[in-house]
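Deliverable D4.2, example record:
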Amino acid sequence: MVPRYVFFTKGVGIHREKLASFELALRDAAIERYNLVRVSSIFPPGCRIITRQRGKELLRPGQIVFCVLAEAATNEPGRLTAASIGLAAPGDGEQYGYLSEHHSFGETDEKAGELAEDLAATMLATTLGLEFDPESAYDERKEIYRMSRKIVRSQNITQSARCDKHGRWTTCLAAAVFVGHTPVQIA
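Output generated by the structure prediction step:
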């Protein structure tokens, strides 16, 4: 099975119980009605990015749905938490790309998102044999990736939240949800 489409979503949930805060985050992300199966982080060749709304139209409640999911939770008052998915798509549509999951504490949306995007782009760059200094800033490496035309798209979706003063569980999640699987032909 190879997904034809992917959509990105994020959510946050707050509740006195950890499991309930996770459920509320799923609801906020509009993916609570599916049986989610976490998979690793390959962006399939030829996979198209669609909107969350279009993705939901293609899915049915109770359906088993594959996704790359990042999740972070805390009940420490005032603690900032974040969950992010990064994407790096290759210029060659026949080549696979990478998705990365990043979950952290103390990072803003911007910082966590950039880190997730950097992780995905670095994994793809090393697969494609691009030469770069891994110690250089991501902005510098991003320019090298783009100039090579081997990595044409990188992006992230990130959710962060600060735990309230009462210490209720705060769960952040971000997901890349796969849709429209087609069987692989075996020769």
